[in-house]
């Protein structure tokens, strides 16, 4: 896949002029972009602008505004435990409606448009209702419709099971993944994810006034950001993009400004900002809680039995710390997990307290996780020292620590999360004056 | 196909007991039966009752309450002339939602249920969006799901085009047709159409206090009633039932009372009521208007040019009367048509007034059509005399007359429609005391 082009018309002329090559672009718009008839018409005009530049355009669309939540509420009223197959049948009506309405709005501008369900678009998935994974895309009908000069609208979030032929959904927020998967299957030049913010920032701008837009970011860094609290792109979507080598442009649906390009690190433009950037961004996550198992007998296998118990309850554990007590040959084991799984985990552990023989269980949901992410830290061993010093100087207590090759995460008290984010952002020189300068020569 | 059974449990035992044959039944519920979560649960319980009797049950469902109108309104907000393909894509979401919700409600009672879209159910249609016709039913998935002991829920009103593979709709009210077509394809013993009235009546009970439920009616009579104002069954549905020999039971979704069986005339039970019944019912229609073309030159071909003009505007004409003037060798031609087509017809005729040379156009939408229908009139030549005498005695002016082998229709002033219906109902001895006695030995 080539480097993404500038969206400046003059740069595109060479691709779409006489004898030029027509590029394929996939655009994804979320539910808030199509909340009512007026927004749908606005999105339609935006899509048509891209078509006018000479691109083949495929659009992936989410359900309108709160449609999915309203349908879930209706399902609850009918049955407290609706079968997953039927829930998928119900929920997929949402994207079907927004896709058809968007096609109508585009047709009203004089351009041809055709909407397709996930099944019609050839989104083939596993049979796991509510959380299916894309196995394959067979985009024959899309290609045909593009050949007939249509703008193609695809209902996001949905597909059809390869084995049962039943309609499936890919999980909440998975329209991003649909878009990236289609971009890969169609050999699109890039995939644009339209959202309500201007791109990926060095930190949450609501916490850090000087947070700057990141013009380019590697898949690996984006994965770490997504996995550690940045809500802008779904983890699964970034994984898919990395595996398929799809370049993703995260940008605002309310402006024409460039956003953030997510791409292979080898393609990231060298520039003054790149030289200095040890850290690409600071992210935080308030959705976790900490469980501490106190007085675990210090014998081989006891820790394993604790984590087996939690894993059996289908809970994903994030960070783990084990402290050996010097006094009584017992240990305390702490781990973090999603707050929503807290009760289930505690119940499961209490049920085996007698067998394992630990003395107590502590639960703390007043915590937050702060992470710094950047490929630059690979070659700079002083990063963790800088991070911890900055936090210490800000008077912040560090509870737990975990690291990957390009990330350091710490658990801090919930009320100190904002201070920790600000301290790290400043310590690594990320603070800027408003919108960041766009580096490099591509105009992105 | 055999005579429909009684729905009395004792009568059904012989079919479903040990070694007995399992019968297939198709049930159709309209949008008002599933307007909210509570109604959906009520309908689910009703369906489960049939399943408990040992039947294989296939249910055809319409969109909830006003969903279709709300979706049409949304489409209008997005585009004044939405493409028909996209409108079908949008509207079919309605039945998809009600089908999934109904399947959930059934599952909640402990029975297995699976919903299918028209496309999944194998409803193959022509490609005429908004008014497609069923070409074929390939019910493989339905049969398989029935084999797995599921109650099958099929989204009505929709199918998939044989040629384009696009989603189609069959026109408003066409869920009845889906049900009858499925009953035919599945070899169902009968098809139950649940509605908000107790069946087909000898006249509109809101006009005639003594109107009685008709326990059995032939396809031909039902066709005439449907074509002449009775709104209880769609014309196309009755045509399909007659062609396929499907017995249709029209009954109330609010009671367990038997309704009206629509069936081949040879199967109708002989009984005292049958002996006397010259006329099966009286129906009326206030939706038509009358156009009179005045001063048409009395030359060969002029009338043809008038009707060619109207036909070219895609308008269906109902009744026609031509009066030759004795004074000036010109004629007046009157015809009736749907009021909704009035403006188009007048515009089309005015455009050719110079060419044809008529002198004036009159338009009257203050008319009503009253029809008497009955196979009995075939062998009783005095029927029209009885009808016209009754109308004359009631002081009613007859404007136009048209007849078929089993129907006589008259146009009367709008304000005299009720009087005309009552006069005809009484003249043919149809008045009863409340609910009609059920004749015959089958308990229907």
How does this model look, in words?
2 copies of one chain form a homodimer. The first copy, chain A, is an alpha/beta fold and 444 residues long. Chain A has a domain at 9-195: Acetylglutamate kinase-like (Carbamate kinase). In chain A, 34% of the residues lie in helices and 24% in strands. Chain A contains 14 helices and 20 strands. In chain A, the strands form 4 sheets. Chain A has an 8-stranded mixed beta sheet with strand order 3-6-2-1-9-11-12-10, sandwiched between helices. In chain A, strands 5-4-7-8 form a 4-stranded mixed beta sheet. In chain A, a hairpin with an 8-residue loop joins strand 4 and strand 5 (134-137). Chain A is globular and about 80 Å long. The two termini of chain A are 17 Å apart. Chain A binds chain B through residues 37, 40-41, 71, 74-75, 77-83, 85-87, 89-90, 92-94, 96-97, 99-101, 103-105, 107-108, 113-115, 120, 141, 165, and chain B through 37, 40-41, 71, 74-75, 77-83, 85-87, 89-90, 92-94, 96-97, 99-101, 103-105, 107-108, 113-115, 120, 141, 165.
